[in-house]
Design brief:
The chain is α/β, with parallel strands linked by helices and 342 residues long. It contains 13 helices and twelve strands. The protein is globular, with a radius of gyration of 20 Å.
């Protein structure tokens, strides 16, 4: 996702339980050898590649950069705002676009026409996280005949993330691959849970706040609270399956977290390091139990936590490394996360 794009106040309404495929495009699954797929969501690209369908991708979003090689594909979207600058500046640019009733993204109609995808995977969870299903339907109908099928994802909690893998696999005609991929992910997650459980063994869990945006302050919702609990932490703010909420600094102070994990949406680890100084300027920051104990972790929200796809397991592993390093070896430290200095 782009920096700053998980703002709760800018999201669309919660989708109905049966959402996922455009109602005007209920087709039979494709024959695998015939598919031409456009993915407008980094997590969807990772799901498609995880299902062994990399060779069928013909278009991507400007953010799709994993696995290796997908960056060579033409991209069909780009943001209408500058993604540089401070957290506050990015937030204000996005809000200005949305308040004027404008889309945050452009769709390149010429590239869409040339690629001729017959299935497009996008999302309807957040109007500023990626091109919405509605916008994509409008663009596709304008330039493609016949119109492609649009698969729209909207994961809320952890089970929704895994359910989307099944949904994409079923619609793309490879349900058995979806079953196998989800089975592998569940096995890895249960392994983390078991190792951490043996370490905790009924004892106290660290009290955790996970920060998803720095200015204004936002804490993580959706699947993150479940990952925190599964990794052996006690989640203090943010509700599983609900959009990430804005909070005041005073609320965080009053809860006295023992661990703070900073995962700004769309920020790599290096950019998170550059922005983390905003926290140290908050009144009373140095007095938090987490700060005093050196338990403030900075993580790569762009490539891990904010991508609800196969690497959700690596996000869980990162949290376990932070909370219980004796149970989960810190294999991701330095690449996926690190301790905040100072």
């Amino acid at each position: 996702m782009d920096p700053g794009l998980t703002h709760a106040g800018l999201r669309g309404p919660d989708p109905p339980q049966d959402a996922g495929v455009s109602p005007w495009m209920q087709r039979a699954p494709f024959k695998t050898h015939e598919m031409r797929i456009a993915s407008l969501l980094p997590s969807a690209t990772e799901i498609i590649c995880g299902l062994g369908l990399r060779d069928h991708l013909v278009l991507r979003s400007h953010e799709c950069d994993h696995p290796a090689g997908v960056g060579a594909l033409p991209f069909v979207t780009e943001p209408k705002y500058q993604a540089d600058g401070t957290s506050y500046a990015i937030d204000q640019r996005i809000r200005a676009l949305v308040q004027e009733g404008l889309s945050v993204y452009r769709v390149d109609a010429d590239r869409l026409r040339k690629a001729r995808p017959d299935v497009i995977v996008t999302q309807h969870q957040c109007e500023v996280c990626a091109v919405s299903a509605r916008e994509m339907e409008e663009a596709a109908c304008a330039v493609l005949d016949p119109a492609p099928e649009i698969i729209s994802l909207a994961p809320g909690g952890l089970e929704d993330v895994l359910g989307d893998i099944h949904r994409v696999a079923n619609r793309l005609g490879v349900p058995e691959r979806g079953d196998a991929l989800v089975s592998r992910l569940r096995e890895r997650m249960e392994g983390v849970r078991a190792r951490v459980g043996a370490q905790v063994d009924g004892g106290p869990r660290p009290r955790v706040v996970t920060i998803e945006w720095l200015d204004p302050l936002m804490v993580a919702g959706n699947w993150i609270p479940e990952l925190v609990e599964m990794a052996g932490g006690q989640n203090l703010l943010g509700e599983a399956g609900a959009h990430s909420p804005f909070v005041s600094w005073e609320v965080i102070q009053e809860l006295e977290p023992e661990v703070v994990v900073v995962i700004p949406c769309g920020f790599t680890l290096e950019r998170t390091r550059r922005e983390a100084g905003l926290l140290s300027r908050l009144p009373g920051w140095a007095d938090l139990p987490a700060t005093r104990a050196g338990q403030v972790a900075l993580a790569d929200g762009h490539h891990f936590f904010n991508r609800p796809g196969p690497r959700i397991v690596e996000s869980l592993e990162i949290l376990a490394e932070i909370f219980h390093p004796s149970a989960q070896a810190p294999e991701h430290r330095g690449s996926g996360w690190d301790w905040m200095e100072g």
